[in-house]
Amino acid sequence: MKALNRLPPMLGFGLVAALAALPFSGNAYLTTFAFSVLIAYILGQSWDWVAGEMGYVNLGHYAFYGIGAYAFAIVLVGGSPFWLAFVAALGVTAIAARLLAVPLFRLHGDYFAFASLALLPLLEVLAYNLTPITRGADGIVLPVAQVLQPAYLIALAVCVLTFAVTLRIHGARFGYALKSIRNDEQVAETVGVRIAPVKRRVLILSSLFGAAAGALQAWQMSYIDPATVFGLNVALAPIAMVLFAGSGLRYGPLVGVLLLASMQQWLLVSVKGFQATLYGATLLLIGRFMPGGFLRAKWVRRVPGLAEFGREHHEHAMTAGVQAPAKAGGELPLKTLPVDGARPLIELQGVRMQFGGNVAVNDVTLSIRAGEIVGLIGPNGSGKTTLFNCISRVYTPTAGRVLFDGQDLAELGRDGIARLGVGRTYQIPRPFSDLTVQENIAIPLMFGAKPLSPRDALREARAFVDYAELGPRLYDRADALSVQEKKALEFARALACRPRLLLVDEVASGLTPAEVKRFVEHIRHVRDRYGITVIWVEHIFSALEQVVDRVIALEQGVLIADGPLDAVVRNERVLATYLGAAAAATQPSAQPMLIQGVA
Amino acid sequence: MEVLLQVLIGGVLLGGLYALVAFGLSLIYGVVRILNFAHGTLLAVCGVAASLAFSAWQMHPALIAAMLAPLLFAFAWAYYHLLLRPLAARNHFEGTVGTVLVTVGTLLILSDLTAKAAGSTQRNIPLRLPALEFGEIVVSSTQLLILGGIVVLTIVMHVLLKHTWFGRAIRAVTQDGVGAQICGVRSVHMKALTFAFGSATVAVAAVLYVLSFPVDPYMGFGLTVKAFTIIVVGGVGNLPGALLAGVFLGVAEGLTGLYWKPEWAPALSVIAMLLILVVWPKGLGRSA
Q: Which residue of A has its CA nearest to B224?
């Protein structure tokens, strides 16, 4: 099996060596064909950094190819040497990508896909009509002859670089930022990932490789016109090739490009007419039957040798290789915070959150001291989760101030608030679904106030995983976990943010009494041992009463009670609006039934 | 002055047609969550077919529309069930890229086959009705016919959406697919019907379009882009918004042609969309 695992690298070296020898064989046809495959790989793989890794389907990737080709041609025609024109092509395209990132990343999902595709007709119109610069429909003839050999060798070098970058991205913090964005942008931000620069950078990176491909293709062909670089009927080919084999897989783009580009070449030679129809039919069939790629099919897994090509990236060496011993005693690698009872850690001053006419949080003012455990109660829809969202900046409050350790949070984004020391869980668990348990926890460690390298973060994640009793699930994908395990994972992930304030949102609802008890112990432990301040939204009073120092009750966004639990549950407004008058009527003397509920 | 007025009238008509195309697209997107890249190409194909039918048999445009619409409805219904519905079972990323490839593939096939069958030259319906004069202003009855068609189709769609159970079901699925399903809306059935209905409206729009503006097999994608711009600005499923944005775009294109160069008109919608995204990121009812 070991030998088979080494098969792809060995094949890879052999392939590169054979390809490097090809232009010296004197077979111009074969060299030209191989050149087109190299270009398609550069385009397809650089597209996949944005799509497969970050989950943004950039259908306009060919725009970068075209901009690069045009910039290269224009500078070269102006009399500059090759390398200057090449650098100019990269520079111009990077600037274009930086500018386009502003409007494009205002969009998500399908909208992003469509808007990026709309760039192609726009650029085609520009290329046709800016005749003084682009010579319009006539196209540009480049003053070069017989550059196939150097163009080919440079393209091969860029290809190798592309693959190296792909490997590098997989194991780097940057790559984990992309993966977290792919799974859930909002959660990525609330665990400390600064997503906007990451999105910009990956678009610029992919645009640079697209531009290199365009420039080399223009050089080799010595002619470009608008239709060949911006035409819709060519632009989606590299994307289809990647999808055919498997987007997001290490070898997906490579395998897909090799197979489909060969087929395309064969079709070009052997079929006359109806080429657009055939090309369209190929796209259609790939889209209909294998948008996930054939390398992900079950039969591939069973074929020795082939299976290696179909492995997801987390099954490759990097993550699996980071072994960390299971730790006994349940100690977390967290610093113990000083518990200064006099100082408020978090202060809300007149915080108001309004959605249209609906006031979800209505001028709430409260203050919580460092080291307190506070229960937040109230009927469903009373604004508890909205209040959390106001603190972690998932929403920007309509009015009021949120002070954390005396600092106004208004200036900070979600990621900044996370790095400052606010960790949170979500009412409906939102783990990074297609990452492993270990990676889920490593991400906040990589993007916290003291960022760790991926290797260290993955090692340190082990302690948090054991704390959450998820050790046996370390290498499993988060979407394979049960609801209870997902909640435990979220709790551990919030702790991995190294929070000073932990916002826990209904982590115990729907769990069995034994599971609830474990959360209660965890919450008490992280406060007692590490000095973490906790706000806990929960309906299970038997759980709350064991740990909270006091509770705050909300009703229709208004703070109606604040004090020790047994006082608040006797509060008339709380009884009337939340616990129900019936609870008061049956046991007028003291505690309503609910409190003993699950004890 | 007269030229300007003619350009404005032409712009309003063109914009109204854009809005019809956009509305079919947005109806489909709202319910089926599929961006049909071949949507505009359906108009191009139907336009070419209508023009051929007119020159061969001198059929009345209304009759052509009445024949094309059910044909397109049936085609789109089968298309949805055969090619798009199976993709709904896949994960989000695969579903998205799958539908993109399927619909773009369809676009290329339709354009290529239409060009092979009917040539890639521009066509229209050379039906010339007598002109009407209102004092100084001369309005062609063809333009009135188109305007009437747009108004009727808009009213029909509005009534259908707001006052029938089919429309309520469409709106319910648009807002919350699972919720609608729980309440007994047959959501797969609704999706197929909406896809077919949204596509069939294109047949009517195509006949109106080809009465006054030329069509060719390759014009479709440009139209889809314009329709998408209109949705980005006007909001999904918002009929008045689409109409407003469409007319604005049509008039802007007409004025670009009049005061600058007509060849820049196709770029206008994309530039407008990018600018709007920068200065007005929230849009009208566009959610994150």
A: A118
Buried b (16+ CB within 10 A) or exposed e, A471-495: eebbeebbeebeeebbbbbbbbbbb
- Mean pLDDT, chain B, rounded, equals 84
Give the integer Cα–Cα distance in Å for A21 and A211. 25
pLDDT at B140 over 90: no
Looking at the predicted structure, is the pLDDT value of residue A399 above 80? yes
Q: Under a CB-based contact definition with an 8 Å cutoff, are residues B106 and B36 in contact?
A: no
> What is the β-pairing status of strands A422-424 and A501-505?
parallel
Mean pLDDT to the nearest integer, A455-473: 86
Rounded mean pLDDT, A150-178: 91
Q: Does A285 touch chain B (CB under 8 A)?
A: yes
Contact check, Cβ <8 Å, B221/A232: yes
Q: Chain B partners of A55 at a C-beta cutoff of 8 Å? A: 93
| Cα–chain center distance at A77 | 42
User: Which CA distances in Å does B76 have to A276, B69, B195, B203?
Assistant: 22, 10, 7, 11
Q: Which of A165, A185, A109 is nearest to A415 (CA)?
A: A185
| Residue ranges of domains in chain B, CATH in brackets | 2-120+131-279 (1.10.3470)
Q: How far apart, in whole angstroms, are the C-alpha atoms of residue B215 and residue A213?
A: 35
pTM of the model: 0.85
Between B100 and A180, residue with greater pLDDT: A180
Phi, psi of A423 (to 5 degrees): -110, 150
Chain A residues near residue B113 by CB distance under 8 angstroms: 277
pLDDT of residue B286: 44
Question: Given A55, A114, A121, which is nearest B35 (Cβ)?
Answer: A114
Number of A/B CB contacts below 8 angstroms equals: 143
Cα–Cα distance between A88 and A75 in angstroms, integer?
Answer: 7
User: For residues A70 and A79, what is the distance between their CA atoms, to the nearest angstrom?
Assistant: 15
Considering only CB atoms, A122 lies closest to which of B97, B101, B270, namely B270
For residue A533, the cross-strand partners are: A501
Domains within chain A, CATH numbers bracketed? 2-318 (1.10.3470), 344-431+500-596 (3.40.50.300)
The predicted pLDDT at position A444 comes to 92
Which residue, among A50, A186, A288, would best test binding to B if mutated, counting the most B CBs under 10 Å from its CB? A288
Helix (H) or strand (E) holding A22: none
Residue B57's CB: how many other CB atoms inside 10 A?
10
Range with the poorest average pLDDT among A271-285, B41-55, B135-149: B135-149
Mean pLDDT of all residues in B195-202? 92
Cβ of A59 within 8 Å of Cβ of B100? The answer is: yes
pLDDT > 60? residue A398:
yes
Q: Which residues contact A238 (CB under 8 A, 6 or more apart)?
A: A40, A43, A44, A47, A61, A62, A257
